[in-house]
User: Which sequence fits this backbone?
C-alpha cells in the first residue's frame, strides 16, 4: 500500500515536470489526387491553442467545406522523461476540377501570441486517363499501393541512397555538411548496411539522429519517402580532390501480391531483397593560401576570442587563473590549445581545456575554454604576454589575426610564504643572445700573430746575443781580476829583467867588476825610481826606513839591502866572479818581491 | 681646472666617435631598429672595405641569428673568436646558438687536447707571445744575476728564478703557438646548407647504403682530407670530415664554409 502511494506521488511529480514542447504549424498536402476526385488539405498546429486562422483558397480547385477541427493529445514517459503533445488539425475538403499542378498557398494562425505561417506547397492532380492505365504499367508511386505489385522489378530510381554534400568545393579544414539519405517509393522492411561510406582524409563530427522513414521529398519530379541514415560535419584534412566511397546496403522492400479470396481480393505483402549502392561524392579541396601568417595553427572558420584574468590582486604562492575562450563557427574542436607566454617566475599547471561543440545546419559552432592556473613565485611586476590567435576565414578567403591583451601583474608577498629562505639565486633565463657590441670596432686589414712573425724571434736572438756578449766580456775581466798576483809578478820580473839586463850580459861574459858595478847601478836606480827619490839622497841606512814607511815589508827591504851589501863587498874582493849567479838571482828576487808587495 | 678637464674629456670622446666609421654606426642603428638584413649587409660591406675585427664579426653574427640563419651566425661568432678568443660576448652567444641548432654532436677531441685548447684560448696568441718574451727576458736577467753577482742569495734567486722563467717561457711559447694554430686553422668548417646527407665516399650517395649521416645547418666539422671528384660530368669538391670522435664521412664542399 505504501509503495502504491509512493508510485502515485512520483507520477504526479513527473507530471509536474512536463516540459513545454515545440510549437509549429504545418500543412499536409494531399497524396495522390485524380481529376474530379475529392481531397483533404490539413493544417496542423501542434502544442498550442490557435486563433485567427487565415487560409487562402487553392486556385483551380473547388472548396467543398472546411475547416473541420479535430484535437488530439498524447502524453508519454520515456526513461523518466515526460512529454506531452497536443495537436489541432484544420481540414479543408476540395474537389479537383482538372488535371495539373496546383499550389496550396501559405496559411497563418496566431498561437502563443505569435503569427505562425506554413510554406506554400505544390501538388499534382493526375488526369483520369492516368487512373485508367493498369497499375502495373504506371510508374511506381509512394502512395499508390496498386503500383507496388509483387514481382515488379525494383529499379534504381525506385530505391536509392544518396550522399549529399553541402558544398562542391571547400578549403582545408572548412566545415562541410554531409548527409546520407535513403530515398524509396516502397516501404522498407529491413535495412542493412554491408559497407559504410569511408571518409578518407576527413575528420568527422557526427550528429545523432534516429533514422526514420517519415519525410516525403520530391526528387527529380517524383515523390519519395526519405530517411536520413547519417548526418555529419566533415573537415577535410588535405587538399586536392577527395572522394567519399559509395556505401553498399542490403534492403528488403515490401511489394504487394493480389490474392483472390473468392469474395474479395486481399493484398498480401511480399518481401523483395535488393542490393543498393550509394553514389560516391567528390569534393575539391583548396589548400589554404600561402604564406600562412605566424601563429596559424589550423583554425578555419570564423572565431572570436576573449581572455580574462580572474581577480585583480596577486600574491606569491596564491594560485590565480587566466581564462581564455575561443568561440565561433568552424573546426573549433580541432583548434590547438593556445600557449600563453607566462613569466618564468610563475609556476604553471597543465591547462584545463573544455570544448563544447554543437552542430547547427551544416556548421559546427561552439567554444573552447582553456583555464590556465598559475602560481606567482616571486614578488614583483610581471607581464603575461599577449597571445595571437590566427584563423582563416573561408568566406572572405583571408587570414584574420586576433590578439588578447597583455596583462601587467603586480605580485605582492603572500601570507602563505614557504618556510624556506625567501632569497633566491639570480636565475639566468638564457633565452636570447647578447646585444651587439656598440663600442669602437677598429677594423684592421690583417690579423697579426706575432708568434708567426720573424721579427718576434729576432728579438729573442738579439736579447740572447746581448746577454752572451755581456757574459764574455765579464768572463775575461773576471779571469784577469782573479790572477792579479801573477800579473804583478810578471810585471815585477819584467822590470827586474829590464833593469838587470846589462848586469846579465856582464855575468855571461864573466866580467866580475863590471857585473857588480852594473848590479849596484841598476839596484840604486830601481830604488830611486821606486821611492821617487834622487840617487844622491839614498843611502844604505835610509832605504829600510823609507821602504817600511811606504808599506813594504821589512823582509823585502832587508833582502834588497843584503844584495846591495853583497855587491859592495864583492866589488872589492878578488875572486868575486864565482858568486855572480847567486847575486844576480837574489837581486832579481829582491826586485820581484818589492814589485809583488806593492799594493 | 675641472672645467678644462671635462672639456678635454668631451673632445676626446668626440674624436673617438669621429674615428668610428659612419657606416658602422649606420649598421649599429639599423640593428637596433630591427632592420637586421640591412645591418648585416652594411657590416659585410665594412668588413670588405675597411677591414675585419672581432666585434664586427660578432655584430654580424647577431644579425644572422636574428634573421634565423644559424649556420652563418655560428660562422661569424667563430670568426670573431679567432680574432679574440677572450671575447666573452661572442663565446656566450656562440654557445647559446649552438643549443638552438638541430644536431648535437658527441664528444670531440681528447681530454688533454681540449684542456690545452681552453687554456690557450684564455688569452690571445699575442698576449701569450709577449708573456713568453717577458719570461725570456727574466731568464736572461736571472742568468746575468747568477753570473755577475757575488752575493749568494742573489745568485740563488738568479739561478732558480731563471730556471722557472725559462720553463714558463717555453710553456707560453707553446700556448702562443697553439692559440695561433687555433686562430689560423683552415680545417674547421661550419655546415651552412639547411641539411645535407653525408656520403661514405667522396661522391653523391648512389643508394641508401652509401648515405652516412644527415647533418643540419650550424654543425661544426673538422676537415681531414679533400678530394675533387667527377660524377656524371659534375665536378665537385668533397671533404672528409670528422663531426665528432665517432662520426666521420664525406661532405660536399658546397654545403660547408670554412671559418
Assistant:
Amino acid at each position: 500500500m505504501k509503495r502504491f502511494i509512493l508510485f502515485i506521488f512520483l507520477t504526479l511529480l513527473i507530471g509536474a515536470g512536463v516540459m513545454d514542447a515545440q510549437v509549429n504549424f504545418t500543412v499536409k498536402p494531399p497524396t495522390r489526387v485524380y481529376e474530379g476526385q475529392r481531397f483533404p488539405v490539413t493544417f496542423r498546429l501542434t502544442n498550442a491553442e490557435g486563433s485567427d486562422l487565415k487560409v487562402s483558397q487553392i486556385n483551380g480547385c473547388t472548396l467543398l467545406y472546411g475547416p473541420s477541427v479535430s484535437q488530439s493529445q498524447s502524453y508519454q514517459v520515456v526513461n523518466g522523461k515526460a512529454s506531452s503533445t497536443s495537436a489541432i488539425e484544420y481540414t479543408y475538403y476540395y474537389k479537383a476540377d482538372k488535371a495539373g499542378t496546383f499550389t496550396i498557398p501559405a496559411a497563418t494562425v496566431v498561437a502563443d501570441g505569435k503569427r505562425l505561417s506554413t510554406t506554400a506547397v505544390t501538388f499534382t492532380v493526375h488526369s483520369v486517363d492516368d487512373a485508367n492505365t493498369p497499375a502495373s504499367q504506371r510508374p511506381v508511386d509512394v502512395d499508390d499501393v496498386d503500383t507496388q505489385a509483387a514481382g515488379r522489378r525494383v529499379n534504381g530510381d525506385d530505391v536509392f541512397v544518396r550522399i549529399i554534400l553541402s558544398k562542391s568545393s571547400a578549403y582545408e579544414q572548412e566545415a562541410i555538411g554531409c548527409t546520407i539519405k535513403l530515398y524509396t517509393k516502397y516501404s522498407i522492411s529491413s535495412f542493412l548496411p554491408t559497407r559504410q561510406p569511408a571518409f578518407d582524409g576527413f575528420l568527422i563530427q557526427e550528429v545523432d539522429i534516429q533514422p526514420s522513414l517519415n519525410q516525403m521529398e520530391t526528387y527529380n519530379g517524383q515523390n519519395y519517402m526519405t530517411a536520413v541514415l547519417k548526418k555529419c560535419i566533415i573537415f577535410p584534412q588535405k587538399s586536392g580532390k577527395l572522394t567519399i566511397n559509395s556505401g553498399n546496403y542490403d534492403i528488403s522492400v515490401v511489394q504487394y501480391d493480389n490474392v483472390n479470396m473468392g469474395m474479395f481480393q486481399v493484398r498480401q505483402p511480399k518481401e523483395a531483397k535488393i542490393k543498393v549502392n550509394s553514389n560516391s561524392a567528390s569534393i575539391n579541396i583548396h589548400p589554404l593560401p600561402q604564406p600562412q601568417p605566424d601563429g596559424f595553427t589550423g583554425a578555419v572558420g570564423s572565431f572570436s576570442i576573449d581572455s580574462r584574468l580572474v581577480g585583480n590582486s596577486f600574491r606569491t604562492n596564491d594560485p590565480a587563473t587566466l581564462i581564455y575562450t575561443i568561440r565561433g563557427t568552424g573546426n573549433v574542436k580541432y583548434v590547438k590549445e593556445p600557449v600563453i607566454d607566462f613569466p618564468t617566475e610563475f609556476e604553471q599547471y597543465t591547462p584545463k581545456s573544455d570544448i563544447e561543440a554543437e552542430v547547427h545546419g551544416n556548421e559546427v559552432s561552439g567554444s573552447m575554454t582553456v583555464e590556465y592556473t598559475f602560481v606567482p613565485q616571486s614578488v614583483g611586476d610581471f607581464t603575461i604576454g599577449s597571445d595571437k590567435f590566427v584563423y582563416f576565414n573561408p568566406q572572405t578567403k583571408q587570414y584574420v589575426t586576433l590578439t588578447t591583451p597583455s596583462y601587467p601583474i603586480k605580485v605582492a608577498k603572500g601570507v602563505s610564504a614557504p618556510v624556506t629562505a625567501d632569497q633566491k639565486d639570480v636565475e639566468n633565463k638564457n633565452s636570447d643572445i647578447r646585444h651587439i657590441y656598440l663600442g669602437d670596432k677598429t677594423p684592421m686589414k690583417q690579423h697579426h700573430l706575432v708568434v708567426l712573425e720573424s721579427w718576434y724571434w729576432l728579438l729573442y736572438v738579439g736579447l740572447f746575443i746581448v746577454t752572451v756578449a755581456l757574459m764574455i766580456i765579464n768572463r775575461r775581466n773576471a779571469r784577469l781580476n782573479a790572477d792579479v798576483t801573477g800579473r804583478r809578478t810578471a810585471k815585477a820580473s819584467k822590470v827586474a829583467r829590464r833593469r838587470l839586463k846589462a848586469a846579465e850580459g856582464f855575468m855571461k861574459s864573466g866580467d866580475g867588476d863590471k857585473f857588480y858595478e852594473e848590479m849596484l847601478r841598476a839596484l840604486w836606480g830601481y830604488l830611486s825610481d821606486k821611492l821617487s827619490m834622487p840617487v844622491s839622497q839614498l843611502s844604505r841606512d835610509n832605504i829600510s826606513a823609507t821602504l817600511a814607511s811606504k808599506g813594504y815589508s821589512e823582509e823585502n827591504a832587508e833582502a834588497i839591502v843584503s844584495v846591495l851589501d853583497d855587491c859592495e863587498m864583492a866589488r872589492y874582493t878578488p875572486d868575486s866572479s864565482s858568486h855572480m849567479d847567486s847575486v844576480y838571482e837574489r837581486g832579481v828576487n829582491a826586485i820581484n818581491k818589492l814589485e809583488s808587495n806593492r799594493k | 681646472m675641472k672645467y678644462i678637464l671635462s672639456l678635454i674629456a668631451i673632445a676626446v670622446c668626440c674624436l673617438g666617435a669621429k674615428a668610428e666609421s659612419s657606416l658602422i654606426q649606420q649598421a649599429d642603428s639599423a640593428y637596433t631598429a630591427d632592420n637586421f638584413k640591412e645591418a648585416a649587409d652594411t657590416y659585410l660591406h665594412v668588413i670588405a672595405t675597411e677591414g675585419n675585427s672581432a666585434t664586427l664579426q660578432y655584430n654580424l653574427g647577431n644579425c644572422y641569428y636574428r634573421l634565423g640563419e644559424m649556420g652563418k651566425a655560428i660562422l661569424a661568432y667563430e670568426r670573431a673568436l679567432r680574432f679574440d678568443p677572450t671575447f666573452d660576448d661572442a663565446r656566450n652567444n656562440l654557445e647559446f646558438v649552438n643549443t638552438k641548432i638541430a644536431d648535437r654532436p658527441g664528444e670531440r677531441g681528447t681530454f688533454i687536447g681540449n684542456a690545452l685548447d681552453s687554456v690557450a684560448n684564455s688569452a690571445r696568441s699575442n698576449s701569450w707571445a709577449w708573456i713568453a718574451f717577458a719570461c725570456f727576458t727574466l731568464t736572461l736577467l736571472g742568468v746575468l744575476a747568477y753570473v755577475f753577482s757575488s752575493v749568494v742569495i742573489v745568485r740563488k734567486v738568479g739561478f732558480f728564478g731563471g730556471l722557472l722563467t725559462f720553463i714558463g717561457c717555453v710553456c707560453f711559447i707553446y700556448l702562443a703557438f697553439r692559440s695561433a694554430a687555433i686562430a689560423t686553422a683552415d680545417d674547421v668548417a661550419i655546415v651552412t646548407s639547411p641539411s645535407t646527407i653525408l656520403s661514405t665516399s667522396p661522391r653523391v650517395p648512389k643508394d641508401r647504403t652509401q648515405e652516412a649521416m644527415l647533418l643540419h645547418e650550424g654543425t661544426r666539422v673538422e676537415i681531414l682530407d679533400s678530394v675533387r671528384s667527377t660524377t656524371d660530368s659534375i665536378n665537385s669538391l668533397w671533404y672528409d670530415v670528422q663531426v665528432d670522435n665517432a662520426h666521420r664521412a664525406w661532405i660536399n664542399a658546397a654545403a660547408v664554409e670554412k671559418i
User: Anything to note?
Assistant: Chain A touches chain B through 31 residues (CB under 8 Å). The longest strand of chain A covers residues 61-78. The two ends of chain A are 157 Å apart (CA to CA).
